[in-house]
Structure formats: structure tokens, C-alpha cells
Design brief:
Elements (H helix, E strand, L loop, with lengths): L7 E5 L4 H12 L3 E6 L2 H13 L3 E6 L5 H15 L4 E4 L15 H26 L6 E6 L12 H21 L4 E8 L2 E2 L1 H6 L4 H9 L7 E2 H12 L10 E4 L7
Parallel strand pairs: 1-2, 1-4, 2-3, 4-5, 5-6, 6-9, 7-8
The chain binds nicotinamide-adenine-dinucleotide.
Length: 253
């Protein structure tokens, strides 16, 4: 039985990697998927992949760091489809690999704007709609294993991902009594274009990363998608305020 039948679900960062894989799983689970991103051609491709495999998806351009754009997007979804039942706030960017003394202020601002302010804006606009609906809603944001532990050389990214977890807990408490659940997923090393960029597509760097993972492999993006689909579904109806590592055991060490 599909677990997301008739649910209207927004996926940000849906043009690539984890977002695209999640759009596919949500579509297969019966959701009407709203793919949103900055990369229009790739976003249209995600929607086409979902539609070609029997799902129901459409693409919209959005910059998650822009409050007016996100507000307009959510209003448009509700006007067209009647509700916003779930959201996967997943758009994100990597930061520079450098110690804090070598991180220019512009890099800090750029990373925090997308990874933390972007999630703040999305959650704010989504909850505003969800508390008006009888069935409430479920929100999942993408933090990271880097949101749970310190990693030297990644101050902006780590701080932004730790921030997502704090935001998740706080907003979950604020709206727990309004039938809106707010959770996060914390991916470890996942096979996506971002991982290729961070490792310079080097097998040697990748092998070093894998040594740190108890399961001794990177994950497929679909493995994050499955955890996310469960959190977005009514199967997780008593779960709120948690940030679940999906990391092959990395942060359990
Ligand atoms: N790949 C990993 O190993 C890994 C690990 C932990 C967490 N994450 C997180 O997972 C999420 C998805 O990453 P991915 O690996 O799929 O990367 P990716 O680069 O493949 O995909 C990220 C997507 O976000 C979009 N995006 C970036 N800025 C945006 C903005 N301002 N507005 C709208 N869309 C925007 C990009 O266009 C892209 O399509 C990110 O939040 C990332 O930090 C990834």
C-alpha cells in the first residue's frame, strides 16, 4: 500500500541528488510532488522522471533564501491543489573547506543564507498554511551528520546544519499541539553531485571517507529518500522534534 496517497508534498533542492531521489520515492508512494529548485532544466527533468514512472509531479523555480519567493510558491501550491500536506526542505550548498581564519565573511553569509535561513523561511511559510488545515502536516528538513558532530574545516556548513536541528526541535514544540510535525534527517556520505564536488571526484578521498563509516560504504540518495518518506507519512504519526542520522553508523561512534 502506498503511504503518501493524495498528499501534496513540496521538495526543495529537487533538481539533483537527494531531492531528486526523494521526489521519485514520494511519487511512487502516491504523493503529488511539487519539485522546487534554482536549476530549472534539471528540475523539469525530475518532474518528468516522476511522471514517466506513473507519479504526479510539477516543477517550480524558487530561491529558498528569498522569503517572498517561498511565500508565493506555497500560496500557489495551495491555490492549485487545495493544501500543502508535507514538505522536504532539502535545498543546500556546501561551504568552503578551510579553518575559520581563512573563511571569508561572504562564504559564511552564502552558506547560512541557503542552509539555515532557507530552511527557516520554508518552515515559516509551510506552517502558516499547515495550521489552517484540518489534517495539519509533516515537515522534514535536511540537516547532516555534520549537524551532530564537529568537523574541522567546515565551520559555516556545520554551523548551518547544527542550526537546522535547533530550529527543528524548537518549531516542533511550538506546533506539536496543532497537528504539525517537524523533523529532520541527517545524511552521512551520500552519492550525489555535492559529494563529487566536495571530494573533487577523487577515489582516494572517497576511500578515506568510507573508512570512517562503520558500514564501509557511502549511501545511495534513495536511502535518505526512504527515511524521509516515512517521516512525511502518517506511519510516523507520533514522531516530532527528532533529527534522524541516516549515515551507516558514522555518528554512533
Ligand atoms: N551528499 C551528501 O553527502 C550530503 C550529506 C549530508 C547532507 N547533505 C545535504 O543534503 C541536501 C541535498 O544535497 P545533495 O547532496 O543532494 O546536493 P546537490 O548539490 O546534488 O543538490 C542540492 C540542490 O539544491 C539546490 N539549491 C541550492 N541552493 C538553492 C536555493 N537557494 N534555492 C533552491 N534550491 C537550491 C541545487 O540547485 C541542487 O539542485 C543538502 O541540504 C546537503 O547539505 C548532503
Amino acid at each position: 500500500m502506498p503511504i503518501l496517497t493524495n498528499k501534496v508534498i513540496l521538495v526543495t533542492g529537487g533538481s539533483s541528488g537527494i531531492g531528486r531521489a526523494t521526489a521519485k520515492v514520494l511519487g511512487a508512494e502516491g504523493a503529488r510532488v511539487i519539485v522546487a529548485d534554482l536549476q530549472d532544466q534539471e528540475g523539469e527533468k525530475t518532474a518528468a522522471i516522476v511522471n514517466d514512472t506513473g507519479g504526479d509531479a510539477e516543477y517550480h523555480h524558487v530561491d529558498v533564501g528569498d522569503y517572498d519567493q517561498v511565500k508565493t510558491l506555497v500560496a500557489g501550491i495551495v491555490e492549485a491543489h487545495g493544501s500543502l500536506d508535507g514538505a522536504f526542505n532539502n535545498a543546500g550548498i556546501e561551504g568552503p573547506t578551510a579553518k575559520i581564519l581563512d573563511v571569508p565573511m561572504e562564504d559564511w553569509d552564502r552558506v547560512v543564507r541557503v542552509n539555515l535561513t532557507g530552511v527557516f523561511i520554508c518552515i515559516k511559510c509551510e506552517i502558516e498554511q499547515m495550521i489552517r488545515q484540518e489534517n495539519g502536516g509533516s515537515i522534514v528538513s535536511t540537516s547532516s551528520a555534520a549537524g551532530l558532530i564537529g568537523i574541522p574545516g567546515a565551520a559555516s556548513y556545520n554551523a548551518s546544519k547544527h542550526g537546522v536541528i535547533g530550529l527543528t526541535k524548537t518549531v516542533a514544540l511550538e506546533y506539536a499541539s496543532k497537528n504539525v510535525r517537524v523533523n529532520a534527517v541527517c545524511p552521512g556520505f551520500i552519492e550525489t553531485p555535492m559529494l563529487d564536488r566536495v571530494t573533487d571526484a577523487s577515489e582516494k578521498i572517497r576511500e578515506q571517507l568510507i573508512k570512517a563509516v562503520p558500514m564501509r560504504r557511502v549511501a545511495k540518495a534513495a536511502e535518505i529518500a526512504e527515511a524521509t518518506a516515512w517521516l512525511l507519512s502518517d506511519k510516523s504519526s507520533y514522531v516530532t522534534g527528532v533529527s534522524i542520522p541516516v549515515d551507516g553508523g558514522w555518528v554512533a561512534q
